[in-house]
């Protein structure tokens, strides 16, 4: 009898223990849709040991998006401090494993994708030529990342999606090191396109760009940027056919669909349908079933108008300045709103496809 009671209590304890484990481990789907298992790596060396699991089809050339997704997929199981420590463990340009330290950390000033100006931050590289490729192609966007400590918005380093034009992966080019003719598919085999123009394994930023790495905070660093420090060396490298660093490989990948810098409240009439859908999605709208460009334009315009009215005078003036509008005589918020909304209407009326009725009396006199 005593033995039965002991067994019964042991079973209950085991069941409760198993239940507690299930409650602690939340199912998370990765960038490719697979269920992600918790990972207990704590050091950069632990991350580097995952190389063979991250890069399954070839080398890491121009495939740092896979390092990034490996970490971001597992971020819910990590502390913020641990994520940020591990995220400096690879080169954002080449994909090479690196040890984060002062010798591999470079302070960069890059354009934000929304056209709101420059952002200064740190990136980690395997060698200085990555500075040049970064300045030419990498931009800064945002991404809200959930860790064990909660959600936090980060600045991230991004490029455009090369799978917007997948045929470019098989276009031949000459590597400057040895004159060898190759393709991205051959030299950067991990840059692979899936269904619907998706870059396999990539995590996308808030504005729909490929995340290569975090763009680390450098707000307390008042020193010179690597852009300035290596300017002459980058010019010399350009004049010599990019014969150092990754050569043409990363540049070819990033140049397929370069990030298009535009004002965050750019006139919808100037956008293409794909851009309109992306902008509407970013603003939380469901565009399924909408096929007419005019409907998408109206949807984004309505959202932009609401957004404009939430901005302060200083922000409205900055937005008007970015659009190149004449601010002379403009004093209060109402005038700024009329100027910005009127400018959007004028853009619409200047379009050859705009109906005449939509433009009557819309211009600012």
Your description of this structure?
With 365 residues, the chain is α+β, with helices and mostly antiparallel strands. The protein folds into 2 domains: 229 residues, no CATH class; 92 residues, no CATH class. The protein contains 15 helices and 10 strands. The strands form 4 sheets. Strands 3-4-10 form a 3-stranded antiparallel beta sheet, with helices on one face. The protein has a 3-stranded antiparallel beta sheet with strand order 5-6-9. Strands 1-2 form a two-stranded antiparallel sheet. Helix 13 runs parallel beside helix 14. The longest helix has 23 residues. The chain is globular and about 60 Å long.
Offer a few descriptive terms.
39% helix, globular, 15 helices, disordered N terminus, 365 residues, three-stranded antiparallel β-sheet, alpha+beta, 2 domains
């Amino acid at each position: 009898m005593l033995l039965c009671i002991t067994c019964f209590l042991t079973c209950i304890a085991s069941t409760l223990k198993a239940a507690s484990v299930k409650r602690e481990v939340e199912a998370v789907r990765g960038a490719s849709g697979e269920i992600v298992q918790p990972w207990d790596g704590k050091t950069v060396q632990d991350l580097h040991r995952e190389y063979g699991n991250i890069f399954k089809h070839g080398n890491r050339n121009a495939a740092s998006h896979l390092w990034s997704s490996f970490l971001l997929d597992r971020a819910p199981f990590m502390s913020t401090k641990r994520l940020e420590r591990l995220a400096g463990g690879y080169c954002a340009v080449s994909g090479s494993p690196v040890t984060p330290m002062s010798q591999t950390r470079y302070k960069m000033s890059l354009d934000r994708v929304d056209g709101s100006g420059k952002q200064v931050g740190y990136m980690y590289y395997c060698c200085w030529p990555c500075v040049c490729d970064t300045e030419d192609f990498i931009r800064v966007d945002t991404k809200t990342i959930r860790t064990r400590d909660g959600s936090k918005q980060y600045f991230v380093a991004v490029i455009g999606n090369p799978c917007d034009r997948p045929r470019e992966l098989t276009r031949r080019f000459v590597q400057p090191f040895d004159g060898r003719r190759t393709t991205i598919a051959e030299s950067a085999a991990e840059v692979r396109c899936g269904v619907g123009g998706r870059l396999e394994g990539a995590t996308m930023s808030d504005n729909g760009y490929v995340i290569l790495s975090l763009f680390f905070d450098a707000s307390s660093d008042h020193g010179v940027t690597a852009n300035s420090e290596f300017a002459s060396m980058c010019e010399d490298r350009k004049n010599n056919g990019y014969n150092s660093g990754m050569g043409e490989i990363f540049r070819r990948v990033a140049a397929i669909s370069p990030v298009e810098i535009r004002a965050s409240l750019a006139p919808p009439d100037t956008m293409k349908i794909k851009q309109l859908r992306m902008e509407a999605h970013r603003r939380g709208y469901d565009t399924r079933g909408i096929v007419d460009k005019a409907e998408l334009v109206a949807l984004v315009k309505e959202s932009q108008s609401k957004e404009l009215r939430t901005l302060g005078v200083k922000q409205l003036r900055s937005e008007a300045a970015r659009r190149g509008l004449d601010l002379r005589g403009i004093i209060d918020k109402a005038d700024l709103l009329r100027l910005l909304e009127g400018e959007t209407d004028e853009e619409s009326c200047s379009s050859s496809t705009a109906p005449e009725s939509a433009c009557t009396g819309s211009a600012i006199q």
